[in-house]
Design a protein that fits this description.
The complex is a heterotrimer of chains A (about 350), B (about 230) and C (about 290).
Chain A lengths: L6 H7 L7 E4 L3 H19 L6 H26 L8 H17 L4 H23 L6 H18 L10 E2 L8 H28 L1 H11 L1 H6 L4 H27 L1 E2 L1 H5 L3 H12 L5 H16 L4 H18 L3 H10 L9 E4 L4
Antiparallel strand pairs in A: 1-4, 2-3
Chain B lengths: L4 E10 L2 E11 L4 E6 L5 H9 L9 E3 L2 E2 L5 H7 L1 E4 L11 H8 L10 H7 L1 H5 L10 H13 L5 E5 L7 H16 L3 E6 L2 H7 L2 E6 L2 E7 L5 H9 L2
Parallel strand pairs in B: 3-8, 3-9, 6-7, 7-8
Antiparallel strand pairs in B: 1-2, 1-4, 4-5, 9-10
Helix pairs in contact in B: 3-6
Chain C lengths: L1 H31 L6 H17 L5 H22 L10 H22 L15 E3 L5 E3 H23 L1 H11 L1 H6 L4 H26 L7 H15 L4 H21 L4 H15 L10
Antiparallel strand pairs in C: 1-2
The chains are: A mainly alpha (about 350), B alpha/beta (about 230), C mainly alpha (about 290).
Chain lengths: ~350, ~230, ~290
């Protein structure tokens, strides 16, 4: 506390012998994470060969939540763009799958990635509208946009109108093969989303994002293109939500405007991130698992369960702004995904 | 109790960063005391700690014998300390007269009324319907001073009121301040301009890196003493 | 031709209700930069409280307002001081999440206690009365009363803001809350008064909403979006702007609904998007 450290010196020295402090990026826990990552990936890839089909379906669903939570956190936690309308891109992803697979005859499994691209492309004109709204108004603006899309789709008979459509393109596939492939794609998407956010944050882009979150004016004066950075993070998030949406409806087989663009997605995803820990990579993952487990236990208590979640989100936001994960990380100094540079006292000095 | 306001070992922090390291300060009724110091010496921090914008130990700030450290800003105003903030900070969507009326929000009884303020600064009466920010810099400063006086304070704090103003305007402002002081007002004046500070005050404090580096009667202090305390050379 | 004139009249009248929803939202955003995501759910909550006052206490709807509005004022003040004041910062995230949490709590508690059924507040035949304007044109008495209330409230709020000590304090706090504190303003109290007024207006709006149409626990989000669109279309310049925003939104929806029954709300949204693209500060922007 209150020790004055001449950082300039030590930064120049870096991790050579001279300084009393070292700047480090990798942590021991970080290396453990990578090992765990690799092992769990191998484990999950083998799952369709031995695990029960219901577990595969559950885990596919959880993987979708992983992607959504990670993408919301990138946008709202790191980008400072708090959106209540990301279901717009879940819906776009889902309906893009219907169009690409049912109508254009593209293999539905290949189409998933394209659905993300479609979502990112549609995010471009939408961002031109919602970015005009100041501060918190952006959140409601994104919500209004999702409502507009819901109404547009519900009024389009080619897409099945208000009653929705089925993913008939999957008819030719054997059920267990279909579920296995869906599972593999979902698992890859969830690992992919974590890696994407991790490498984004470690890049120059990540630094720019953090700088903007801390002070928009200051970063502008440091030559960061604030508009472009914000737009990019919005488009990337849309891409992720598009993929997750397509994946979700690849598993559900049926889509309707209300299920796709419905506002009930938002509390789910946002509370996952907030309760888990906003502004960290671990938090949303932790939150998604917590959520998933709780929702399976309390399925029968619908309204009371949601009431409790709402209350929990309020309590966490006010008293534990770093979420459950942040609390644990602080307590035990755990950093599974070392994205920031940390200054540490040399052990032997 | 001869002091109106005094601080005893006042410390202040911005988060983990300590900005004040034990300031001992006092001002007696009807005195004008100047505080000088370079940028970052802790002058504004000191004012923030007195007016409750920054937290402080209750006992480290005493006003009329009462411990007021850490009291919230709106309470401090009600206690009788008014502030002319740095950069004036007029309310842009309020007219000149509305800005002045805001000063009387606490309804503290005392001699100052709208008419008195207009008597002191006649130009404000002409422009009383104009938005506060449509005025010249000097006139805006008059509004800021008038606004602070409208709370009928026992202690007036002026933070860098000469900043960005033309010399003739500065002179005019300080003539008005001297006139106010003749009616028995107590004031702390924070100044970057050492000569102005020395001329308008009876006593003077110089701050350096969060500590008092010099104190004394304004007329007794020499140029060498001040520049030593100011720059630390 | 009469069809379109009728559409405009009905649009203007429903716009009065949207303006009632929007005033509080604009008030809270203007003073605290706080976006209350639960605003629409509070409308529905007030409709339900109004329904209870009418059905359980046996009051007339307008008498019920005399009960519901004070309750709403208290709820607003307590909500701000007890919860929302802890979320006010430069970062919009805490206040958005907390009000979103409140929205989910209100919706689900209403679902738990009142089920998902649609309800209506019995206005004692008022809803079917109308005044003939010409042979083919008529305006409903109840919509006229709602619109008249919106105009009166707009006048009242403009007066409060322009001519009272509280109004000056609101504007000063909105401009610079730090400087306002130096004038002796307790920000926490001023914020709570603003929210009390915002929610208090919803006490009136919620009962009118319940008299004009049916309502259900999950109707809140739609009301929030209408209110929000009215605020953005009108701009943040004055309460007259908010009233105008509500009326313009109402007209757009009403004309849209005549084009195709499924497109009414959508045309309103399209207008909102068009305003954002071509007049991003609304029709009555704040001038400084």
């Amino acid at each position: 506390m209150n020790t004055v450290v001449d950082l300039s010196n030590d930064f120049a020295v870096g991790s050579t012998q001279g300084g009393k402090y070292v700047v480090e990026r990798s942590t021991r826990a970080g290396i453990a994470t990578m090992v765990f990552f690799a092992v769990s990936l191998g484990f999950s890839v083998s799952m369709p060969f031995w695990a029960d089909a219901s577990y595969l379906r559950w885990l596919s669903e959880l993987a979708c939540y992983f992607v959504m939570a990670q993408m919301w956190n990138l946008l709202g936690g790191y980008g400072g763009l708090v959106s209540i309308g990301q279901q717009a891109y879940i819906g776009i992803g889902g309906y893009a799958l219907i169009v690409l697979a049912n109508m254009a005859g593209i293999n539905p499994f290949f189409a998933v990635l394209l659905c993300g691209v479609v979502a990112a492309l549609i995010a471009m004109p939408i961002s031109q509208v919602v970015f005009r709204l100041p501060g918190g108004a952006f959140a409601i603006g994104t919500w209004a946009v999702a409502e507009i899309l819901r109404l547009l789709v519900a009024n389009t008979t080619e897409l099945g109108g208000g009653s929705g459509a089925s993913l008939v393109a999957l008819k030719g596939f054997d059920r267990s093969a279909r579920e296995a492939i869906t599972f593999w794609i979902s698992i890859s998407a969830s690992y992919g989303s974590v890696l994407l956010v991790y490498f984004l944050l470690r890049s120059r882009f990540g630094l720019a994002l953090t700088a903007i979150r801390d002070s928009e004016v200051a970063s502008q004066s440091q030559g960061i293109d604030v508009k472009r950075t914000k737009f990019l993070v919005y488009a990337i998030s849309a891409f992720g939500f598009g993929v997750a949406g397509a994946l979700y409806f690849l598993g559900a087989l049926r889509i309707s405007p209300d299920a796709a663009f419905g506002v009930s997605w938002s509390p789910l995803i946002i509370f996952m991130v907030i309760i888990g820990g906003v502004g960290t990579i671990e938090g949303p993952l932790f939150g998604a698992v917590l959520f998933f487990v709780l929702s399976k236990i309390f399925e029968d208590y619908g309204t009371w369960y949601l009431t409790a979640l709402g209350l929990l989100a309020i309590v966490v936001t006010i008293w534990f702004p770093k979420g459950v994960w942040g609390y644990i990380a602080n307590r035990f100094d755990l950093h599974l995904f070392p994205v920031q540079r940390r200054l540490r006292l040399r052990d032997n000095s | 109790m001869s002091q109106l306001l005094s601080t005893h070992g006042l410390k202040a922090w911005y988060g983990d960063f300590q900005a004040l390291f034990g300031i001992d300060f006092e001002i007696r009724p009807q005195e004008i005391v100047a505080i000088i110091g370079a940028n970052g010496a802790g002058k504004s921090t000191f004012l923030k700690a007195i007016t409750g914008v920054l937290s402080a130990d209750a006992e480290s700030v005493r006003f009329k014998g009462q411990p007021i450290g850490g009291r919230r800003p709106h309470r401090v105003v009600a206690d009788g300390i008014a502030m002319v903030p740095e950069g004036r900070r007029l309310f842009p969507s309020l007219s000149v007269e509305e800005n002045l009326r805001m000063g009387a929000y606490t309804k503290r009884p005392g001699p100052w009324t709208l008419e008195k303020i207009y008597g002191l600064f006649p130009v404000l009466k002409e422009k009383r319907k104009a938005p506060g920010t449509a005025l010249s810099g000097g006139q805006q400063q008059m509004v800021a001073i008038g606004r602070a006086l409208m709370s009928n304070p026992e202690l007036l704090i002026c933070d860098e009121i000469s900043l960005g103003l033309a010399p003739a305007v500065i002179k005019e402002i300080y003539v008005a301040l001297a006139e106010i002081a003749r009616n028995g007002l107590t004031a702390i004046v924070v100044e970057q301009d050492v000569y102005t500070a020395q001329r308008v005050s009876q006593r003077l404090y110089c701050f350096q890196e969060g500590r008092v580096s010099l104190r004394g009667n304004s007329s007794d202090l020499t140029h060498e003493q001040i520049s030593h305390a100011y720059f630390g050379v | 031709m009469t069809v379109w004139i009728d559409a405009i009249i009905q649009g203007v009248l429903v716009g009065g209700l949207y303006a009632l929803f929007a005033m509080g939202l604009s008030l809270m955003f203007g003073i605290m930069r706080l976006v209350n995501v639960a605003h629409g759910d509070v409308v529905i909550l007030m409709s339900f409280i109004g329904l209870m006052a009418v059905e359980k206490l046996g009051l007339q709807p307008f008498t019920a307002m005399a009960v519901v509005v004070p309750v709403a004022l208290c709820i607003g003040y307590a909500l701000q001081r007890g919860i929302l004041n802890f979320t006010i910062s430069k970062d919009p995230l805490p206040s958005l999440i907390v009000t979103f949490g409140i929205s989910i709590v209100i919706q689900n508690l209403l679902l738990e206690f009142f089920s998902a059924d649609t309800r209506a507040i019995n206005s004692g035949g008022l809803e079917s009365q109308s005044i003939a304007i010409s042979d083919n044109l008529a305006a409903g008495v109840l919509p006229l009363i709602v619109f008249g209330s919106a105009v009166l409230l707009t006048i009242g709020l403009q007066w409060l803001f322009g001519n009272t000590s509280m109004g000056r304090a609101f504007r000063a706090t909105s401009d610079d809350h730090g400087a306002a504190a130096l004038m002796g303003i307790n920000n926490a109290h001023i914020y709570a008064l603003a929210t009390a007024i915002a929610i208090g207006i919803l006490g009136i709006a919620g009962i009118f909403h319940g008299m004009r149409t049916t309502f259900a626990p999950t109707d809140g989000p739609a009301q929030l979006i209408y209110a929000f669109e009215a605020v953005i279309i009108g701009g943040l310049g004055s309460f007259w702007g908010t009233l105008a925003g509500g009326v313009l939104l109402g007209i757009a929806q009403s004309i849209g609904a005549r084009l195709d029954p499924g497109w009414g709300v959508l045309v309103g949204h399209v207008m909102f998007v068009a305003v954002l693209l071509f007049k991003p500060n609304g029709f009555f922007p704040k001038t400084r």
